[in-house]
């Protein structure tokens, strides 16, 4: 249980720091969508809706930043909790021992 708690707290703290680089990686910048990027392609294809606008607002440091940061925090907490759980408990995945037999690793 401690692994889940520690993982979720670390995930919730670390994930928001990845928000700006993640938005930049798909082409959202402080000046608008980057030419030739996924964001620019989506914009030129007419896929401009609430999600696009919120992501662009977050990249520009606007009102969308709170919403996108909250999503990154929540996802980070869930992923961190899962990592903490599996690190503490071991993977429940059955592995093939190479001889056709399966072995439960948990």
TrEMBL record:
Q: Which InterPro entries match?
A: IFI6/IFI27-like_sf
TM region positions: 34-55, 67-88
> Keywords on this record?
Membrane, Transmembrane, Transmembrane helix
Q: What is this protein called?
A: Uncharacterized protein
Species of the source: Apiospora rasikravindrae
Traced from the root, the source organism's taxonomic lineage reads:
Eukaryota, Fungi, Dikarya, Ascomycota, Pezizomycotina
């Amino acid at each position: 249980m401690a692994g889940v708690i520690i993982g979720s707290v670390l995930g919730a703290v670390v994930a928001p720091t990845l928000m700006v680089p993640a938005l930049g990686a798909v082409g959202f910048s402080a000046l608008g969508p980057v030419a030739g990027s996924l964001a620019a392609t989506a914009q030129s294809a007419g896929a401009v809706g609430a999600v696009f606008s919120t992501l662009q607002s977050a990249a520009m440091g606007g009102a969308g930043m709170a919403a996108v940061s909250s999503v990154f925090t929540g996802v980070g907490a869930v992923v961190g909790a899962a990592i903490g759980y599996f690190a503490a408990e071991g993977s429940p995945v059955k592995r093939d021992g190479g001889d056709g037999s399966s072995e439960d690793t948990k």
